[in-house]
């Protein structure tokens, strides 16, 4: 059954809340967890659920996303599988870019129909979770639904940031409300105990979480999605769902496991550092449902005379006489003697510098790629290929972490972000 399902991963818009990480790349291509990209999460969930036909929809800075997808997800001819990026394009039917989530799907129907799918599964490209979509599909089929919306129990305070699903005790969706303000009374949207019990939701997990938030994961019957999008409406949550409730059988699939929407610098930073904690909320160490990514064939990380605790170090790195705490170190990261990192996500580098390149760096007064001698960094994100010199102090000295864009860095949510390819000279204080 899963072989006739077509997966559509929504790549998002400009990703302004993740700037400057999305300045030169699409949001799904942002490096995550030391060695992955955000888009690896929904693709891996598809592969683990035996869904092998996957389209990624994007329209901003798609070059790095294309490169990652084409070099990573290569299926054999027998599986008939593919992962393909569909960037916004002008056609005789439309000269506009995607105007919203539903509009992005509508404008690519001509590509989707070629696959003759029985069902579509719509996914987001900026979430961290592990789900077997076959379980959701079973709920969809067992209830003879036209559309099934995955939902997670949340508190009233959290509800302001999500689309809220109202459902009866059988799980049939009766109403949908997009991001209700905290002052609005939404008591009628509370999930019934019968519905939570029917979905085997752990009462301890659900305590104080009386509302069901749409997770941005939907299963449509193919004909139902064509009918639902046969209009000019542009967004699933704001327009499509409220208008489908009287026309289709809309059901909900209640999910009771870790799920995090990674839409802001703070959530991105916190989620990455949580991976390095003693008991992380998300388990990458699951051999039954692994998270896949690009195979780099890098050597193991070399650690010389270091103190490292509650941290992740990705392959291909060389770390010498450094102290690293509560941090994530990405691929090919070079950290020199005396460096001290606490609460840092260092994305690493795309390449190693040759001796000739290092000599040219010295001629121009540019530090080598990596983190220089004696540099101290606190509560920061270092994007790919940063050159941080010797004796720098980043996030150490007392200062007002005022959000804004500065000459050498950006501060968002109180977190210092050093942009991709940045050059931070010796002795810089940020």
How does this model look, in words?
Helix content is 20%, strand content 28%. The protein is of the alpha/beta class and 430 residues long. It has two domains: 2-274, Spore Coat Polysaccharide Biosynthesis Protein SpsA, Chain A, CATH 3.90.550.10; 302-424, UDP N-Acetylglucosamine Acyltransferase, domain 1. Strand 2 and strand 3 form a beta hairpin.
The overall pLDDT average reads 90
Topology, number of strands: 29
CATH C-level class of the largest domain is: Alpha Beta
Shape assignment:
globular
- The helix-and-strand class reads alpha/beta
CATH topology descriptor of the largest domain:
Spore Coat Polysaccharide Biosynthesis Protein SpsA, Chain A
- How many structural domains can be distinguished in the coordinates? 2
Which ranges are low-confidence, i.e. pLDDT below 50, for 5 or more consecutive residues? none
Distance between the termini: 55 Å
Brief synopsis:
The protein is of the alpha/beta class and about 425 residues long. The chain has helices at about 40-50, 65-70, 100-105, 110-115, 135-140, 195-200, 205, 220-230, 235-245, 265-275, 355-365, and strands spanning about 5-10, 30, 35, 55-60, 80-85, 120-125, 125-130, 145-155, 165, 175-180, 210-220, 250-255, 260, 300-305, 305-310, 310-315, 320, 325, 330, 335, 340-350, 370, 375-380, 385-390, 395, 405, 410, 415-420, 425. It folds into two domains: about 1-275, Spore Coat Polysaccharide Biosynthesis Protein SpsA, Chain A (Alpha-Beta Complex), CATH 3.90.550.10; about 300-425, UDP N-Acetylglucosamine Acyltransferase, domain 1, CATH 2.160.10.
